[in-house]
Amino acid sequence: MISVNKLVKRFGMKTVLRGLDFEVQEGEFVALLGPNGAGKTTFLRILASLSQPTLGEVRVAGYRLPFQAAAVRRNLGVVSHLPLLYGDLTAEENLHFFGRIYGVLGLSQRIDEILEVVGLISRRRDLVRTFSRGMQQRLAIGRAILHDPDVLLFDEPHTGLDQDACDMLDHLLREVAGQGRTVVMTSHDLARVENLASRFDVLSRGIISASVSSNEMGKNNLLDFYRQALAG
What we know:
Helix 3 packs across helix 4 and helix 5 (133-145) packs parallel to helix 6. The strands form two sheets. The chain has a six-stranded mixed beta sheet, with helices on both faces. It has a four-stranded antiparallel beta sheet with strand order 2-1-4-5. It has one domain (2-231): P-loop containing nucleotide triphosphate hydrolases (Rossmann fold, 3-Layer(aba) Sandwich), CATH 3.40.50.300. The chain is 34% helix and 27% strand. The longest helix is centred in the C-terminal third of the chain and has 16 residues, at 163-178. By secondary structure, the chain is of the alpha/beta class.
């Protein structure tokens, strides 16, 4: 579902990604780990067609970036630590706006379904600026899955949430992943992603330095794996 070969990304004289290789199969939930400044957000922005690679080949849902960016966006949902919603519109109006952009058929019914999934059906006519951070993030996930994409990208979605909001978000992430979608999520919270992802990749020094599935972890815990990956 995602295939990246020899990806290089430079900003002026600074090289952030250095020949990165990365593949994700359909239905996998990959947690992308790494220290601050490792290039995780840069990498997700490239996958989301928001930034162009300097060198290398990137394919998402079978389409090549940046040449088929419009097709990629139709098959992609993106959630970041910023909800990217319109505060002076209601929850329903936000979803209607984005649904029109994506040409979602049966939009009114689909909005009802999404608001039910994210637990906001009773707040559908409330302005988003009145929502808590956790509620905004739930609506952002609703926006991301509104057009039924094959691939979801989450960039630090738990940032700024309290414990209750994080727990609700985790429940929603499990539901979304359980529907067979392919998910890539960056995170600094190892304890949280350990219970969510089916695979863990470490981005360090511009490449994927280590990768392990949840089934392969064995007696080792994720923290040990992460430390060893950074040390190597």
